[in-house]
Amino acid sequence: MKLIDLGEFGLIARLREAIEESRNPELESWQRLLIGTGDDCAAWRGDPRVQIATTDTLVQGVHFLEGTFTWEELGHKSMAANLSDIAAMGGAALYALVSFSLRADTDVADVLSLFRGMIEEGTRYGVAIEGGNLTTAPILVITIALLGNAGNGMLLRSAARPGDSVAVTGYLGASGAAVAVFKQELDVDHTTKELLRQSHFRPTPRIAEGQEMVRLGVKAAVDISDGLISDLTRICEASQVGARIDAALVPINPALHESVGAKSLEYALAGGEDFELLFTAPAVVVQRVRAALGIPVTVIGEIVAEHPGKVIVRGSTGGIPGTTGWDHFQK
Question: Distance (Å, rounded) from C-alpha 118 to C-alpha 203?
Answer without folding.
Answer: 13
